[in-house]
Design goal:
The chain is an alpha/beta fold. It has two domains: 299 residues, Glycoside hydrolase/deacetylase (TIM Barrel, Alpha-Beta Barrel); 135 residues, no CATH class. Strands 2, 3, 4, 9, 10 and 11 form a six-stranded parallel beta sheet that branches. It has a three-stranded parallel beta sheet with strand order 1-8-5, with helices on both faces. The radius of gyration is 23 Å and the shape is globular. The model has no long low-confidence stretch (mean pLDDT 93). The structure holds zinc ion. The site of zinc ion has 5 residues, from loops.
Length: 444
């Protein structure tokens, strides 16, 4: 491994440990946008995602002179697998720019990203490679939205400090919808999932990728296993090995390791302009299918098992799936249900009015309008709380919302009665999320 790639590897590791600390100290909220990393299942199914394509240049080393995307699609199909291609629109608008040092994160541009490479933008993206996009759709692979221009949603100082970013949430939504419209208008294809460029979530003005995805009706597609290949090694063969060895050793230790996992790959070059995925993918697929795995699209994986913490065998599963499919915000941002947590006033309101409240919340933030003495406009449930108060489904307590207070039986009965427009009377001391979800599902 070169010094540069070691440094990047270390930076990622340091960043990862920061993420763990941040995660532990940040409250996680119920959300209509769920960040899907891995789903809970005992079935041997998993998904593979391919970022940054379509890629119209030949794979390197060039064995068959085929565009890389076509080679990946054919390799997947050979193993009966469906890929999830997280595509971009076009990066040719990302100039002026110049290439950074090969082997670093800036290899393809200092101010922006360029796919498949700087000054060769016309060989990549859905706008420029319609035949590859058509081939993927015809092959039954899933297409997801990796944004039109691959411009970062907001600032990311550690690795991408010199990057030009979107100015605010309106630009982010416009960029996402530009690609959405291209797919919908020209192919009749409706994308449902998106992954932010370089996983940058923060958007200037107090927004995040969750707000943008809520506005677009998307779920946040993350990944739980790094398929590797994107980091440069000494040789191409070492890079292919870096893709296959971890899969092999994980399967040797635990045959069920990949159940419900989403594997990250690239439909593109690594930082040394090589594409080890061209050989690594087939080897990974062989290892997985030999152990009985079926590789499905991410949407199929979620359809099979939508949650991170409830398996299809769980008693609550059918109720939770029904509630989710009917638009109730019963999941946390990290796609967990946490069925044994005690339901609070804020969460009860969010479960029912969350989806409708997303638009309200954007307006509250833009106008800097608070909902109650103790609820700022930026609160994740502010929109839902505003709607519930307006509908007289819940009342303030001494002018405060008291979102973190466990909800009482009287308040929850009133909330459900107003929402479902019928008399519902419940009696309990405290109610868990699991119990509340069951009650909601029974009303649908
Ligand atoms: Zn990307």
């Amino acid at each position: 491994m070169s010094c540069v790639s070691k440094a990047i590897g270390l930076a990622k590791k340091v960043k990862h440990s920061f993420d763990v600390i941040i995660k532990a100290s940040t409250p996680v909220y119920l959300s209509s946008v769920r960040r899907i990393e891995r789903v809970a299942t005992d079935e041997k199914i998993c998904a593979m995602t391919f970022d940054d394509g379509p890629f119209g240049l030949p794979a390197n080393p060039d064995k068959e002179s085929k565009p890389l995307t076509l080679l990946l699609a054919e390799t997947l199909e050979k193993y009966g697998a469906k890929g999830t291609f997280d595509v971009i629109g076009d990066t040719s608008g990302n100039y002026p720019d110049s290439a950074g040092k090969e082997g670093t994160a800036k290899w393809g541009g200092i101010a922006y990203d360029h796919y498949p490479d700087i000054n060769r933008d016309s060989f990549g993206g859905c706008k420029n490679q319609p035949q590859l996009l058509r081939r993927l759709i015809d092959g039954g692979h899933e297409i997801t939205n990796h944004t039109y221009s691959h411009v970062l949603f907001g600032k990311k100082p550690i690795i991408y400090g010199a990057r030009v970013t979107h100015k605010g949430i309106d630009d982010v939504i416009a960029d996402l919808m530009r690609l959405h419209s291209l797919l919908y208008d020209e192919y009749g294809y409706e994308m449902k999932l998106s992954r932010p460029p370089h996983y940058v979530d923060k958007i200037s003005g107090g927004f995040s990728s969750y707000d943008a995805y809520a506005a677009c009706g998307y779920q946040y597609m993350a990944a739980s296993f790094d398929g590797a290949g994107w980091l440069p090694k000494k040789s191409y063969d070492d890079e292919v090995l870096a893709m296959t060895e971890p899969v092999k050793s994980k399967l040797e230790t635990d045959e069920n390791f990949f159940c419900g996992q989403i594997i990250f790959q690239k439909d593109g070059c690594n930082m040394l302009r090589r594409t080890p995925v061209a050989d690594g993918l087939g080897a990974q697929l062989k290892l997985l299918t030999d152990k009985g795995y079926k590789i499905v699209s991410v949407s199929e994986l979620i359809e099979n098992s939508p949650f991170a913490d409830i398996k299809p065998s769980d008693e609550l599963f059918c109720y939770a799936k029904k509630a989710l499919e009917n638009g109730f915000d019963i999941c946390y941002r990290d796609n967990t249900v946490r069925k044994n947590e005690i339901l609070t006033r804020g969460e009860a309101v969010m479960m029912l009015y969350g989806k409708e409240g997303d638009g309200e919340r954007l307006s509250l933030i833009k106008d800097k309008r608070n909902v109650a003495k103790d609820v700022k406009f930026s609160h994740p449930y502010s929109g839902a709380m505003k709607l519930a108060l307006e509908n007289l489904a819940i009342s303030k307590i001494e002018n405060r919302f008291k979102a973190d207070m466990p909800i009482g039986d009287g308040d929850f009965s009133k909330l459900l009665s107003v929402y479902f427009n019928k008399d519902i009377t419940l009696s309990f001391g405290e109610i868990t999320h699991g119990e509340a979800i069951k009650i909601i599902a029974e009303q649908i």
